[in-house]
Design a protein that fits this description.
The complex is a heterodimer of chains A (382) and B (197). By secondary structure, chain A is mainly alpha-helical. Chain A contains 14 helices and nine strands. In chain A, 63% of the residues lie in helices and 5% in strands. Chain A starts with a helix and ends with a helix. Among the domains of chain B are: 39 residues, no CATH class; 96 residues, Alpha-Beta Plaits. In chain B, strands 2-3-5 form a three-stranded antiparallel sheet. The chains are: A mainly alpha (382), B alpha+beta (197). At the A-B interface, helix 1 of A face helix 2 of B.
Chain lengths: 382, 197
């Protein structure tokens, strides 16, 4: 029991640290990537001076994230004269907390055998193994949708409790947009559930470790390429980022549902948004990009199609899986940032008709084709 | 009252989308390809040690493409013996619309031809509007503007003054109006004098 507690405490610390790290790093990635995409240099003026010297550490502008954080912490915490002060104060946390909780069911590595990793502790662990996932729930994917649905409540609370018309409009827009795209997101994932026959994310990833046709990795994107595109689009819309950032459209609504928020309360909204980028990246990686799997890699090392194998120790395998997962998440995050700096914003009626008239029929079509294929495959030869 | 439904005005140059453009996704992909190509090209330049941006770091780097007539910063020309051409007549300070030029004149009885010279000649660059009127007003061709920008960004306004020493540091290889570089005078160039006692 104590062993489990130790291992899961480490997992939770790793997950929280990773999400916070991503939230901070992504602000920098967003600035720098946007700058490089548009022939600029990007933020590079914040520095840390070593005490008693003239040595200034700039590190490619990495300290701008820290400067932002300090600024938000020491700014005046403006409070509007709203009678619903409790909802106003609690709304940022209602947005922020579920975003963190979603990561609880996402597997960020394969099977961990602490006894093999640390031979000195082999007796204590007594051959127990742990999947690298905080909560191995049978209802994994359902929990993801349940918690990411809760952020809608937070945005609508913020819009309502601010006692501001711009906030109210932003909250309304956020509510209708997120509910519409949540539907599309659920429908795209249904195809994957049919193929893998489970909603447990851990076992979904394990099923993606094999090969199809002998050479292609059995990733979700190979089975469901169409659903992958739809899912990513719906996820970006769910995250309210450009081109779907209607709830906070600066040119129309000032800052939408967080117009009345300042200092760290506003920082929490922003931080939640950046962590949600990482969460979307982790979800997409888990569902469509094979999670921590590399092609031709298994728990003992690499096994290439030509019969060539590379043996790896357990520690090396665990480390590779962790790094591969982080890299894949970073690549998907970078793609989201690419989308954000490439596409112009929709008009508000376009956003909703895009969801209901374009993406929903496509998702249903994709689901129908998947159902027919899965059925004919299970039925066997005619 | 019968309400007529709103009808959008039709323009003669209304853009028409083809079916390919209407299908939306191909055009989105095309846009993403363009931006990611630019990103990868610039990233490749940064990775190979070249500069992948059009921006110049302002105080650290000088732009190479300033026009020859750019009014960047002020310089003071020198006589052949290395002393400032300026006779401290205060014409530039008088004409200056921003009133940023401050001249403190001094008297040197030894120099009979030009007994008046500037002991202090300073320009407040936090207020200068770079109009060039001082250059036109000068009767001695003493103050000019060159295309290089001043390296004056600073945290305090007090540090944004262009001093006499800095303006006299302009030493071109040759010049049409002045005998640059200054000829060596017998006995050595006299040192710049401070304010008269």
């Amino acid at each position: 029991m104590t062993q489990d507690l130790v291992i899961y405490a480490i997992y939770i610390a790793y997950a929280v640290g990773m999400l916070m790290g991503f939230g901070t790093i992504l602000t920098w990635v967003e600035r720098k990537q946007a700058a490089v995409m548009s022939d600029r240099i990007g933020a590079n003026r914040a520095y840390v001076r070593l005490p008693f010297t003239q040595v200034k550490l700039i590190w490619l502008g990495l300290f701008h994230g820290i400067a932002d954080g300090i600024k938000m912490l020491v700014k005046e915490d403006f409070k509007p004269r709203t009678h619903d002060w409790y909802a106003y104060a609690v709304a940022p946390w209602v947005v922020f907390t579920p975003v963190l909780l979603v990561f609880g069911v996402i597997p960020f590595g394969g099977m961990l055998d602490p006894g093999r990793l640390f031979p000195g502790l082999a007796d204590w662990f007594d051959g127990r193994t742990y999947p690298m996932q905080i909560a191995r729930l049978d209802a994994g994917l359902l929990m993801v949708f349940a918690f990411s649905g809760m952020t809608i409540i937070g945005t609508m609370l913020a819009g309502w409790a601010s006692a501001n018309k711009f906030s109210l409009l932003g909250g309304l827009r956020a509510g209708s947009q997120m509910i519409s795209y949540e539907l599309v997101m659920g429908l795209t994932v249904l195809g994957l559930i049919l193929i893998f026959g489970t909603v447990d994310l851990g076992s979904m990833v394990q099923q993606q470790s094999g090969l199809v046709f002998g050479f292609l990795p059995a990733w979700g994107v190979v089975y469901q390429p169409f659903a992958a595109v739809l899912f990513l689009t719906a996820a970006i819309a769910e995250n309210k980022r450009i081109p779907f950032d209607l709830p906070e459209a600066e040119s129309e609504l000032i800052a939408g549902y967080y117009t009345e928020y300042s200092a760290m309360k506003m920082g929490l909204f922003m931080f939640a948004e950046f962590i949600e980028i990482a969460i979307v990246g982790a979800l997409f990686t888990t569902l469509f990009l094979g999670g921590y799997n590399l092609p031709y890699m298994n728990d003992a090392g690499f096994a290439f199609p030509g019969g060539y194998t590379v043996e790896m120790s357990h520690g090396a395998v665990v480390l590779t899986q962790l790094v591969v997962f982080l890299l894949k998440v970073l690549i998907v995050c970078s793609f989201q940032i690419l989308v954000r700096w490439s596409l112009p914003r929709f008009r508000y009626d376009q956003v909703l008709s895009f969801a209901w008239k374009f993406m929903l029929p496509l998702a249903l079509l994709n689901l129908t084709v998947t159902v027919v294929l899965v059925w004919s495959h299970q039925r066997g030869p005619w | 009252m019968v309400k007529t439904p709103y009808k959008r005005k039709q323009y003669w140059n209304e853009p028409e989308l083809t079916a390919w453009e209407r299908s939306y996704l191909p055009e989105i992909v095309r846009g993403l390809v363009i931006t990611s190509t630019v990103f990868l090209r610039n990233m490749g330049r940064w990775m190979t040690g070249k500069k992948g941006a059009l921006t110049t770091y302002y105080p650290e780097e000088t732009r190479a493409d300033y026009a020859p007539g750019n009014r960047g910063k002020h310089v003071l020309t020198q006589r052949p013996d290395g002393r400032p051409q300026c006779i401290a007549c205060n014409m530039c300070a008088t004409v200056c619309p921003a009133k940023v030029i401050e001249i403190e004149a001094a008297f040197d009885p030894a120099d009979t031809a030009h007994p008046k010279y500037p002991a202090r000649f300073e320009i407040d660059y936090s207020r200068c509007i770079f109009c060039g009127l001082c250059v036109e007003a000068c009767p001695e061709d003493a103050i000019r503007m060159v295309k290089e920008t001043p390296g004056l960004p600073s945290d305090a306004r007090g540090q944004m003054w262009l001093t006499l020493e800095e303006m006299l540091s302009w030493q071109p290889a040759s010049d049409v109006a002045k005998p640059y570089p200054p000829k060596s005078v017998p006995g050595g160039a006299p040192a710049l004098k401070g304010p008269a006692p």
